[in-house]
Input
Amino acid sequence: MSAQSEDSSPVLDQYRLDPGAVRTDWTPAEVEALFGLPLNDLIFFAQCAHRRHFDANSVQVSTLLSIKTGGCPEDCAYCPQSIRYQTGLEREELMDLDEVVAAAKRAQAAGATRFCMGAAYRGPKPAQVRAIADMIREVKALGLETCATLGLLKEGQAEALRDAGLDYYNHNLDTSEAFYPKIIQTRTYADRLDTLERVRKAGLKVCCGGILGMGESRADRVALLHTLATLSAHPESVPINYLVQVEGTPLDGTAALEPLEFVRSVAVARILMPASHVRLSAGREAFPDELQALCFLAGANSLFYGDQLLTTGNPDTEQDDALFQRLGLHAEPALPDAAT
Ligand code: SAM
Ligand code: DTB
Ligand code: SF4
Output
């Protein structure tokens, strides 16, 4: 046997010459071949891509706040906030501006550089956009990067949010187009792509990823990452969520995804979208440090910081501070223009 690993995937030949090149013309076969690489090779390529664009030990730190919780009319099978499932979640109206600003100040004091406001809407109504625009203005004025996730956007809404100082809009594709109808029926994949297009056109940065571990196949994970990597431009931020199973939701009890398949997916996302932040998102609370370390090695370079995601738990800040220390990671500084 030769000391060097044999090239088992001719489809990767071109890529191997230029790891980290930003491309939007990936083929499904290339994505599939990446998934099928020996793990050592996959991680090596992911590291090459990562180090070409980023400080490999720097992690972008975002904090989430649910500004409007529960009572959502949509039927997303994973979501504790849908009104259709009995999850015991108490419904809350849109938060007051003061409360949001206080939470943003706490997040900033704890070390977050981006504040992401999430609302359990199918999409916001005009008055809600106006109220949330005020929140964005004040959070931005603190010197934080701003992100919002409010569901589907209609004509003009992305522009209104942008004008208030929004940096990122999060809207996930969640899964492959083929698997999507098994998870959500109240809105289509095309609806999601349409919102992403509006966000992009308004000049906002796009935060778009998905959820793994919903019972989808490898082919679905290939298709999801292929779709993300062949959008007209890569999302600047790519959250990879590991399903948080919540009692009362249809997906509670789904067979857990094998953790190394999750690591592979992170590595493939890193290679396909080498200049994007890949966020290790929901599900981290159940991950031992060793698995999180593997995800960082595979190219994850962003996370949610703070003991709550939207409605479910996340590692507390002391735990994450200890993890950063243990792995020699440091928080990425905010964009220089965050307060402008
Ligand atoms: N309602 C808006 C929407 O759906 O776009 C914004 C909030 S929604 C909760 C934001 C994202 O959180 C979803 O698209 C999904 O990817 C993620 N999410 C929700 N519940 C989750 C769960 N149980 N596990 C992992 N990710 C979840
Ligand atoms: C994303 O991709 N994951 C975050 C954020 N974007 C909005 C939300 C995760 C939610 C997990 C379930 C909950 O806490 O309700
Ligand atoms: Fe509503 Fe968003 Fe949850 Fe779907 S994911 S049920 S749209 S809050």
Q: What stands out?
A: The radius of gyration is 19 Å. The first strand starts at residue 58 and ends at 68. Residues 1-5 have pLDDT under 50 and may be disordered. Residues 72, 74, 76, 79, 81-82, 120, 122, 151 surround iron/sulfur cluster (ligand 3) (CB under 6 Å).
